[in-house]
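in:
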């Protein structure tokens, strides 16, 4: 298994199911990859769909301030 940091960006009003589908599609290109952490901008980290997905999958969520 290859542990990766997964950077996530998305538009407002996205659902957890849409995020999950997009992440699954990206990870399908790397079958040995398993997210060790999900990183996003601080304002995105407050979005319930992303928090829900990360909690469901057991992925730590890390937020960064925009540069």
């Amino acid at each position: 298994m290859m542990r990766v940091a997964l950077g996530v960006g998305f538009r407002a009003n996205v659902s957890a199911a849409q995020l999950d589908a997009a992440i699954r599609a990206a990870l399908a290109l790397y079958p040995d990859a398993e997210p060790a952490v999900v990183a996003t901008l601080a304002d995105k980290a407050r979005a319930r769909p992303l928090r829900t997905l990360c909690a469901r999958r057991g992925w730590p969520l890390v937020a960064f301030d925009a540069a």
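note: The beta strands are 2-7, 33-41, 61-64.
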